[in-house]
Amino acid sequence: MTVIVRDLRPDVRTDVEAFARVRRLALPFMLATPESVVHHLTRTHPDARFRSLVAEEDGEVVGTAQVSLAHDSPEPGQGSLNVYVHPERTRRGAGSLLVRAAEEHLVAHGATKLYSWVLDEPANRAFAEGHGYGASRSAHFLRLDLAHRALPPLQDPPPGVEVRTAADYADDPRPMFALDAETTSDEPSDIETEFTDYEAWIEETWKHPLLDLGLTSVVVVDGRPAAFSVAYTDGTLPHSRTRSSGGTPISTAMTGTARAFRGRGLAKLAKNACLHRARAAGYTEAFTGNDAGNGPMLAINKWFGYEICATEVRHVRELV
Fold it and tell me: Do 176 and 300 have their domain in common?
């Protein structure tokens, strides 16, 4: 048995397919496709020093890591490494080799505080602690059965309010950038984020291959985007899947409301519209992520009928 770590080869289809497959097996609550893997590697801002690593065991990809600096944070020296190993290939050294390679890369570029998401399971937490990482905040993955669970009925929006889709902003997405920047900066997180680079946002976020503009809902108040619910899909039409392929997932990657419009139920309005569109299009299950300390969003997801299906705990290692 020989395990090595190397960089992902984005121009080799079998390589990116293997990377995406390991990610889905290790973390089935998040969408990952070869296209999204290549997008992260090739479209992330150069200042992030982003790398995608793979661990190979006798030529087979058994582990992955995505490594970056928090270049859009006002606090310098923060880095992240998220390592996932094929569930049937653990305890063979792949994870440790990936962590070592990721840490060396981040330290070489000035990182002094390293963050990593770890599934809240004894073996995973022990692995993180064994490498010097201590537990921090937690977040939940939640699942909604769109095929069988009744959604709240659609309601007419109040006067001055309308529900659109992100596709309506295809020609000029700058209003969506402003809304995304404001809501993201208010998300609970260990790492503060500031979106200021519109062109980088276009490349990384607006052109993301999983982003479904037609299913992403935008609530507009007096002509201004005030709330949204972002839909990610893998690009495969539901009706083209075979019954044996399992459920057809959609992921609500972000739901948020601009500060001036909070407390008016607009996030519910946006997400409800998104979920109704998704179910009408044939999607059978919806996933989302939720910081464990974000009570308002947890309450909204519970109102829709989401149930927690897994939990991750962010771990941190300070080097100085």
Answer: yes
The domain boundary, picked from 89, 111, 133, lies at: 111
Question: How many domains in the chain?
Answer: 2
CB half-sphere exposure, 170, CA atoms < 13 A: 8
Which residues are paired to 61 by β-bridges? 56
Q: Are the beta carbons of 8 and 16 closer than 8 angstroms?
A: yes
Task: Show the tokens assigned to 219.
Answer: 């609530």
CATH number of the CATH domain containing 31: 3.40.630.30
Return the closest-CA partner of residue 177 out of 204, 195, 203, 194.
195
pLDDT mean for each 10 residues of the chain (320 residues): 94 97 95 96 95 96 97 91 96 96 98 97 97 96 95 94 98 97 84 82 96 97 97 72 54 94 95 96 95 91 96 94
Q: What is the pTM of this model?
A: 0.91
Q: Provide the residue range defining the domain that includes 83.
A: 3-111
Find the angle CA(93)-CA(103)-CA(37) to the nearest 5 degrees: 80
